[in-house]
């Protein structure tokens, strides 16, 4: 369970000076334009010192940022009492920060990642602007990576899957699948109910609907199932066939054709991709620049003895090593390949 101090520290780190959690920032395919301003106050430029908490100074510039978020009671100017309340809040934040640090909470991996992301946004990515990239550069990238901006052909696959098990040999599994296939062929509207009752894969809860799938396939779905679906017409029900450890009945409910998009349609996505490559380059250069400042001792023998259980595969997206966010504030998830997003105007 997260401790109250850790919760408070995370809130302070996440909320920062602008009162909001850091937005997702520039991933491979992301953007609206990032917020170009920052509320970070460099240590050497804190303004007039208003308070000190165990040596940590609270300056007038940090105070002004916090005060700008407060609406005066009289609608005009903050009273002295209101200013004192704001300063007291900043003092409390410093106290809690020092308390958390004294308890070693800065060693918590979650806190460290927040700190790392803040460092990267301030010192590495802050100088990258949309205007750094010319239309000629963007168009050249688009021309060299056209396939990345194509919505591939997809089919909506619905499936009933009957497993072969020790308790149910192949002949019995095939017989059950054949019976279900006959019921579907007689009444296609019964597919969802039959799949929900009989199918033996995670999609039974969705009435056997695997969703729209491209020729590249989908994790957890045997490639033979996808290949079969692409051979079929919309509205067609397959014969029973064996694949993936059991017998399958496939129904193609819909099809989306391949869509090629123009540079003008995808200009925003192109900019996001080009910027993200720049962010990755800057990240690597920054890491190289600080690597020599730290002594690192690796214990290969102990590492070899650590047992690791296989976990979920994570999507890289806009994350750097170990999930470090390499995106700038204000940037969001890119258009996917679902074909619904249309153009990036």
3D architecture notes:
- The chain is an alpha+beta fold and 345 residues long.
- Among the domains are: 4-22 and 32-106, no CATH class; 153-257, Chitinase A, domain 3.
- Helix content is 40%, strand content 12%.
- It is built from ten helices and eight strands.
- It has helices spanning 4-15, 60-67, 80-102, 109-123, 135-144, 170-186, 191-198, 223-231, 263-291, 300-305; strands spanning 49-53, 56-59, 150-151, 154-163, 209-214, 241-242, 246-256, 259-260.
- The strands form three sheets. Strands 5-4-7-6 form a four-stranded antiparallel beta sheet, sandwiched between helices. Strands 1-2 form a two-stranded antiparallel sheet. A two-stranded antiparallel sheet has the order 3-8.
- β1 and β2 form a beta hairpin.
- α5 crosses α9 (263-291).
- The longest helix has 29 residues, at 263-291.
- It starts with a helix and ends in a 40-residue tail after the last helix.
Q: H/E series, N to C?
A: HEEHHHHEEHHEHEEEHH
Number of strands: 8
Largest sheet: 4 strands, antiparallel
Which radius of gyration do the C-alpha atoms yield?
A: 28 Å
| CATH class label of the domain at 153-257 | Alpha Beta
Helix-strand category: alpha+beta
Beta strand %:
5-15%
Count of DSSP helices? 10
Kindly report the average pLDDT value.
82
Strand arrangement in the largest pleated sheet: 5-4-7-6
- The CATH architecture classification of the domain at 153-257 is Roll
Which residues form runs of ≥5 with pLDDT under 50?
14-41, 313-317, 332-345
Report the principal-axis shape.
Answer: elongated
């Amino acid at each position: 369970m997260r401790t109250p101090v850790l919760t408070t520290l995370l809130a302070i780190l996440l909320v920062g000076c602008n009162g909001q959690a850091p937005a997702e920032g520039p991933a491979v395919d992301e953007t609206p334009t990032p917020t170009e301003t920052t509320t970070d106050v460099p240590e050497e430029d804190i303004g007039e010192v208003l308070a000190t908490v165990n040596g940590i100074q609270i300056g007038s510039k940090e105070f002004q940022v916090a005060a700008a978020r407060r609406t005066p009671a009289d609608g005009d100017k903050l009273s002295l009492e209101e200013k004192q309340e704001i300063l007291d809040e900043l003092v409390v934040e410093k106290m809690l920060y020092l308390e958390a640090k004294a308890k070693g909470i800065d060693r918590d991996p979650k806190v460290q990642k927040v700190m790392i992301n803040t460092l990267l946004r301030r010192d590495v990515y802050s100088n990258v602007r949309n205007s750094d990239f010319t239309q000629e550069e963007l168009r050249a990238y688009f021309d060299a990576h056209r396939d990345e901006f194509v919505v591939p052909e997809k089919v909506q696959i619905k499936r009933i899957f009957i497993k072969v098990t020790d308790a149910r040999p192949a002949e019995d599994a095939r017989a059950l699948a054949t019976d279900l296939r006959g019921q579907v062929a007689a009444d296609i509207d019964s597919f969802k109910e039959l799949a929900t009752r009989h199918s033996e894969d995670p999609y039974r809860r969705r009435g056997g609907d695997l969703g729209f799938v491209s020729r590249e396939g989908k994790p957890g779905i045997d490639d033979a199932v996808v290949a079969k679906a692409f051979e079929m017409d919309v509205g067609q029900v397959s014969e029973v066939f064996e694949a993936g450890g059991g017998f399958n009945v496939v129904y193609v409910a819909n099809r989306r054709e391949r869509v090629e998009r123009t540079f003008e349609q995808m200009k925003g996505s192109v900019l996001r991709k080009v910027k993200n490559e720049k962010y990755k380059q800057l990240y690597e250069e920054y890491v190289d620049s600080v690597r020599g400042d730290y002594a690192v001792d690796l214990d290969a023998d102990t590492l070899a003895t650590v047992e690791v259980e296989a976990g979920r595969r994570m999507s890289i997206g806009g994350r750097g090593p170990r999930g470090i966010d390499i995106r700038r504030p204000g940037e969001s998830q890119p258009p996917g390949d679902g074909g619904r997003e249309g153009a990036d105007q």
